[in-house]
Amino acid sequence: TQATLANIKKTETNVNAFITVNDDAALAQAKAVDDKGIDATNLFSGIPIAIKDNILTKDILTTAGSKMLSNFKPVFDATATEKLYGQDAIMIGKTNMDEFAMGSTTETSYFNATKNAWDYTKVPGGSSGGSASAVASGEVLAALGTDTGGSIRQPAAFNGIVGLKPTYGRVSRWGLIAFGSSLDQIGQFTRTVRDNAAVLNIIAGHDQRDQTSSQREVPDYTANLTGDIKGMKIALPKEYLGEGISKEVKETILNAAKQFEAMGATVEEVSLPHSKYGVAAYYIIASSEASSNLQRFDGIRYGYRAKDAKNLNDLYVKSRTEGFGDEVKRRIMLGTFSLSAGSYDAFFKKAAQVRTLIVQDFQRVFEKYDLIMGPTTPTVAFNLGAKVEDPAEMYMNDVLTIPVNFAGLPGMSINAGFSEGLPVGMHLIAKHFDEASIYKAAYAFE
Ligand code: GLN
């Protein structure tokens, strides 16, 4: 823990991956593990792990990247962090993120942008850019993140590491600051596939406090990492290599497909015809859910409270005006509008219908195939600041990841190569609760 803290101190000047480094508390936790004696059978005993700052950590600042929560210390732990502590992992700090997880570059954070671990002039992706950069720059072995439309997989791709969004319901969302509740999922970043599976073993499972968490048993995700994928049936959707996908990304993914075939898997082209409507539908559904979830930040119950309010209504308005950044306000307005009586049928209802079509596309493909592969992102990491002025262009970043959240499927990004020194991510998608197939293929590929 001491060595990790020293390394974080050095590396942070370049990457700014953390909002809070947990110096003294982490050392105290490490000492308690030392006093008890390191348990050699426990992989996590004394291992520092970073947590995205929208996942509650008791008595430790949890800001969700927002001024609104810049003074918020939770009174309880999220289930996922509690489970890691239960294994004697050390909570080394809280990582930077787009405000309330809304963004694709970690630039909407109230706490300054994080940098890509491979090139400090590039974005790290987002919204879990802090967690991805912390792992890729060698600050920590593993970090938790969250994924509503791609926020684990896209930063994993931009930083060349392994990031998994588990099946919706696989990991409890208790203690996660909600964004889009029908889409949100906690997951993990690591440098290797085996480490990734080991973290999922700990954080997965039913939780009475989250009624959407699944009762299904948690298998040992490290058990089938044999390198043998003979006979595996992999689908490659033609839409994932179409318009808007850069030439280098496309070539890298086609090469990866060849590698899978060389290992005895079959790779065949399929179609997911409705995926092109995903981004439009997502920004209505996710924003609608966010407009409801973010009502609780009113200056009374949590966080930031504006000074000099004239009355209660003025206090709400001023606190929200001053406490939220532009992107969060944009989403609240879009969501409130889409849900309003006059617009509901034309916007929210339509988006929900599109979501169903996207879900059915996946169902059809998974009748015949074990896995879907493709690129995680249309391009490699771009320059900091390049897309901040153009929300619509920013939103297109998630065109390949959003459909997976709509369907609640598990998805991983794993490094598939480099283009001009920047990592290219491969996206692997499986059936509900079949993370094991993703791990199997990713391990063979790694
Ligand atoms: N970039 C997407 C958004 O801004 C996804 C964010 C996420 O997955 N939390 O909504």
From TrEMBL:
Keywords: ATP-binding, Ligase, Nucleotide-binding, Protein biosynthesis. HAMAP family: GatA (MF_00120). InterPro entries: Amidase, Amidase_CS, Amidase_dom, AS_sf, GatA. SUPFAM superfamilies: Amidase signature (AS) enzymes (SSF75304). Residues 1-437 form the Amidase domain. It comes from the Bacteria. This is Glutamyl-tRNA(Gln) amidotransferase subunit A. The active site is at 52 (charge relay system), 127 (charge relay system), 151 (acyl-ester intermediate). Gene3D superfamilies: Amidase signature (AS) domain. Allows the formation of correctly charged Gln-tRNA(Gln) through the transamidation of misacylated Glu-tRNA(Gln) in organisms which lack glutaminyl-tRNA synthetase. The reaction takes place in the presence of glutamine and ATP through an activated gamma-phospho-Glu-tRNA(Gln). Belongs to the amidase family. GatA subfamily. Heterotrimer of A, B and C subunits.
